[in-house]
Specification:
The complex is a heterodimer of chains A (336) and B (349). Chain A is mostly helical and 336 residues long. Chain A has 12 helices and no strands. The radius of gyration of chain A is 24 Å and the shape is globular. In chain A, 30% of the residues are buried. By secondary structure, chain B is an alpha/beta fold. Chain B contains 12 helices and 12 strands. The longest helix of chain B has 18 residues. Chain B is globular. Classes of the chains: A mainly alpha (336), B alpha/beta (349). Chains A and B meet through helix 8 and helix 9 of A and helix 3 and helix 4 of B. Chain A: This is ABC transporter permease. Chain A: Belongs to the binding-protein-dependent transport system permease family. Chain A: It holds the Pfam family BPD_transp_1_N.
Chain lengths: 336, 349
């Protein structure tokens, strides 16, 4: 298992280099101008100077390798210095700078990561907690009214996009009923019971919108996987052993059914870090998704490139984790 | 059935399993509203007894309801009708908890040794699970029992912590047998236990089953489509066709002198190893296909393919009765008494 993991990690390096280069080309070759957002009164010569100072007139390959050097060497040094306090990154080590804010991109990401992890992460956990029992009961009572209702709701959750359900929730619960605020205030600090209630109220809508979306997907997986296993011969064996129905379903069937579901859950974790670009926008959560959208709009190449690259790393990493989990959970699969 | 009871009540062996009028229908739902429009009559009124310590072979072609019958007898399905008594206790309609307590008496060896073992459990866990569920033994006692069972079926004790996929087909079937034996059952349904195995392994497993029968005094219902293997292991043989038992007889009588036309056809299909005899074999080749169990023919189930079909066969379902001592057949050909046929039906015909 260890050799397999190491081999996969080594293989990930060329994959990631290739991905980063493709992202860079796509972002760079798209017709966007980092000075387009500046006031029109700025004369063309000054604009040209700004471009020159940002380094956008250099050849694409030079820019790419410059970014790569900053990403894989300078930024980790800064990270280590930030964690340990060792003086490994002197002031002169340059960092990846955002065109828009002129501050290091990593700092922007670090500022926004907590909001995203908090809102999107909770919605993912809520989604899983809702989905697993629904999937299990739906499969066990296949074609019952519960199953039919569950199928209907998850089809709805699957097919209706979050920008629609989000706005619908705002119209119903924020505008008409006035129960919850429509905007998520990230500056709110929980200090006592009352502020906790305020936090709970403002987080409930984005969490439910995303949670229902996630739940409908995972509950379908859980149901399909349970159905696969419920008809297996070993379930009949378990019944013939004279086990209680609870043990048959929750020990024999569920443990085998969870193998594919756990890997699907692991594969979707990078999406949590990526934030929900649209839902964050709808509820004004200033997380990673929103950062990416604003950066794309203003042609902020370093930010788009760095955020996308981090997503790519997470996706490659969690693919590996999903594969390793498969090996851990299923004794029939051994990598060596 | 009355005759059989009367005959064997006098014999030394008592009846361990009594099946009477067992029916297992699977409902069919069709149409937009999924209305109940019919039934697949997988087992349609089967009656037989199994004596303590004997092996009853249950043979028939694919899809005739052998396995369904075996599963229904152990209440792995909910039977539609009929009575099943095992060791004197009625199990056809007892509640779930009571049934669970009775599970140790009756066990099953399944056809597919790969699929019938939970892939995420070790051999020790598979064999030991019934022990922890029913016996209330301590962990170390359970382990002793697991090792004892592995010895009994000829598995190396070192394999206790391996998973089923690491074994060969024959070894997996031994695990399945050890699991079935764990709680000292009296009655074991062997549902085609050798069908998924190599011929070289089949003999080993059958011999193992025979040895275990002697050792523990087990009673088997041995379901198979392999007529020569049934001839080897069974004391009496029941032949099934389309959900019904058409003939039930002691082994030697059945193979020497089959009475039902279907049994004759079935036995004539057994390959003959002697080439001269093979060429001269007078085979009965049945025409057509087995009718659908959801829509069986009127009268005798076999009337659509029977080489000696008569008019009465298409009208009246023959009674399953004792035609000679110990031999039961459901066929009008053997009804030497006057046909109790409906006179109007005879005129119409």
């Amino acid at each position: 298992m260890l050799t397999y993991t190491i081999r996969r990690l080594l293989l990930a390096i060329p994959t990631l280099l290739f991905i980063s280069f493709i992202i860079f080309l796509i972002v760079k070759l798209s017709p966007s101008d980092p000075t387009a957002g500046l006031p029109l009164t700025i004369p063309p010569e000054v604009r040209e100077q700004i471009r020159e100072s940002l380094g956008v007139n250099q050849p694409v390959f030079v820019q790419y390798f410059r970014w790569l050097q900053l990403m894989v060497w300078n930024e980790p040094l800064h990270l280590i210095e930030g964690w340990t306090g060792w003086n490994v990154a002197p002031e002169s080590t340059t960092r990846i700078i955002s065109y828009q804010t002129r501050s290091p991109v990593m700092d922007l990401i670090m500022q926004r990561m907590p909001q995203t992890l908090w809102v999107v992460g909770i919605s993912y956990i809520v989604g899983i907690i809702i989905a697993l029992p629904i999937g299990i009961i739906s499969a066990y009572r296949q074609y019952s009214w519960f199953d039919q209702l569950g199928t209907f709701i998850s089809m709805l959750g699957f097919s209706v996009p979050t920008f629609f359900t989000g706005v619908l929730f705002i119209v119903i619960f924020a505008v008409n009923l006035g129960w919850f605020p429509s905007v998520y205030d990230t500056t709110h600090v929980v200090t006592d019971w009352d502020s906790f209630i305020v936090q709970l109220k403002q987080i409930i809508m984005p969490v439910m919108v995303l949670g229902l979306f996630n739940a409908s997907q995972i509950s379908r997986f859980m149901r399909a996987s349970m159905l696969d296993n419920l008809n297996q011969d070993y379930v009949r064996t378990a019944r013939a052993k004279g086990l209680t129905e609870k043990v048959v379903v929750l020990v024999h069937v569920l443990r085998n059914s969870l193998i594919p579901v756990v890997t699907v859950i692991a594969l979707n974790v990078p999406a949590v870090f990526g934030g929900a670009i649209i839902t964050e926008q709808v509820f004004k959560v200033n997380g990673i998704g929103q950062l990416l959208i604003i950066a794309i709009q203003s042609g902020d190449v370093p930010t788009v490139q760095t955020v996308s690259f981090i997503f790519a790393v997470l996706i490659v990493l969690f693919n590996l984790i999903a594969d390793v989990l498969y090996g851990v959970l299923d004794p029939r699969i051994r990598y060596d | 059935m009355r005759g059989l009871r009367a005959m064997f009540d006098t014999s030394a062996n008592k009846k361990l399993v009594e099946v009477d009028g067992l029916k297992m229908y699977f409902p069919i739902y069709t149409g937009l509203l999924r209305r109940h429009t019919g039934n697949v009559k997988a087992v349609d009124g089967v009656s037989f007894d199994i004596l303590e310590g004997e092996t009853l072979g249950l043979v028939g072609e694919s899809g005739c309801g052998k396995s369904t019958c075996g599963r229904a007898i152990l209440r792995l399905y909910e039977p539609t009708a009929g009575s099943i008594k095992i060791d004197g206790e009625e199990i056809a309609n007892v509640g779930f908890d009571k049934l669970r307590k009775m599970r140790p008496t009756m066990q099953m060896v399944f056809q597919d040794p790969q699929a019938s073992l939970n892939p995420r459990m070790t051999v020790a866990a598979i064999i030991g699970e019934p022990l922890s569920e029913h016996s209330g033994k301590s962990r170390s006692d359970q382990l002793d029992r697991i090792y004892e069972l592995m010895d009994a079926v000829g598995l190396n004790r070192d394999f206790a912590n391996r998973y089923p996929h690491e074994f060969s087909g024959g070894q997996r079937q031994r695990i399945g047998i050890a699991r079935a034996l764990a709680l000292n059952p009296k009655f074991i349904v062997c549902d085609e236990p050798i069908a998924a195995l190599d011929v070289s392994i089949q003999a080993q497993v059958v011999n193992l089953l025979e040895d275990l029968q002697k050792q523990f005094g087990l009673t088997y219902l041995f379901i198979s489509h392999d007529l020569s293997m049934v001839r080897h292991i069974a004391d009496r043989v029941a032949v099934m066709y389309l959900g019904k038992v058409v003939e039930l007889a002691p082994r030697e009588d059945l193979y020497a002198d089959p009475l039902h036309p279907y049994t004759k056809a079935l036995l004539s299909a057994v390959p003959e190893p002697d080439p001269v005899a093979h060429d001269n074999a007078n085979r009965t080749i049945l025409q057509g296909d087995v009718p659908s169990p959801s829509n069986p023919p009127e009268g005798c189930n076999f009337c659509t393919r029977c080489p000696s079909v008569m008019d009465i066969c298409r009208k009246i379902d023959p009674e399953f009765r004792e035609v000679r001592p110990g031999r039961f057949v459901a066929c009008h050909l053997l009804n030497d008494t006057k046909m109790p046929a409906d006179p109007t039906a005879a005129v119409e015909a």
